[in-house]
Amino acid sequence: MYEVQSPEELRRLFAETTELWRPDNLMLLQERFAVDPNRGIVRMEFLGGELLYAMRVVSHGSFNLCPSEVCNPADRPASSKAAMPVEFFPYPEVPAEAVAQGRKLVEAGGLDVGGIEYLEAPDGRLIFFDINANSNLRPAIAAHFGFDLFVRVVDFLERQLALIA
Known about the structure:
The structure is a single chain. This protein is an alpha+beta fold. It folds into 2 domains: 1-30, no CATH class; 33-164, D-amino Acid Aminotransferase, Chain A, domain 1, CATH 3.30.470.20. The chain contains 4 helices and 5 strands; from the N terminus they run αβββαββαα. The protein has a 5-stranded antiparallel beta sheet. It is globular and about 55 Å long.
């Protein structure tokens, strides 16, 4: 990920770093919004159109908000940790409005499973900026809510299989 400050800087980045948009000539460009660094962003995980859980992702200024255990393992050795690693917190207080909007997004995308990310703008707006057609389930977050993620996923898959049997 790169942060650019002007159209000229973006043109220079494209010219000097063509692997960013090769081989399919696809590039995602997002506007950067100010976020309270102590609150971070919110990621909601959905399964079968229902909210599994929400978590706050506090990056401490990092661009890497990846919630996957592979990207940001919970049990990283101390020697490999950055000074302020990305942190993930259960977020049971997710607003009903955010859940309703997330549900609409997964429904519109036809997603059985997915992660929806949003930030809370200083003026109170919820700005949805990432719709993932996959889920990066964090067992420690689900455990906080009292369930095993993988049991929920298997149960969902069994129900889906029963529909086509």
